[in-house]
Structure to design on (87 residues):
């Protein structure tokens, strides 16, 4: 049950928007187009099996692992926040 200005299902709508934003962010980071034979960061050859498994791959396993460990910042979903509606 919603209260105040929020309609019924507002919490679920906010959760759905957050999940949808996460999916779109992940898809935007996915490689597209032709891949590389050599890693764009270290220059080592990317194994054929990796290139076949991940079309569009641009980094070797070691460099991609290092990239994945870096923190990624993203905004907070404020679509359902009353504060954002008041401004």
């Amino acid at each position: 049950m919603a209260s105040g200005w929020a309609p019924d299902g507002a919490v679920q709508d906010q959760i759905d928007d957050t999940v949808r934003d996460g999916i779109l962010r992940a898809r935007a980071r996915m490689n597209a187009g032709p891949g590389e034979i050599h890693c764009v960061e270290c220059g080592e050859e990317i194994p054929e099996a990796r290139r076949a498994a991940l079309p569009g791959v641009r980094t070797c396993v070691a460099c991609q692992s290092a990239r994945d460990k870096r923190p990624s910042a993203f905004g907070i979903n404020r679509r359902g926040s009353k504060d954002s509606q008041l401004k």
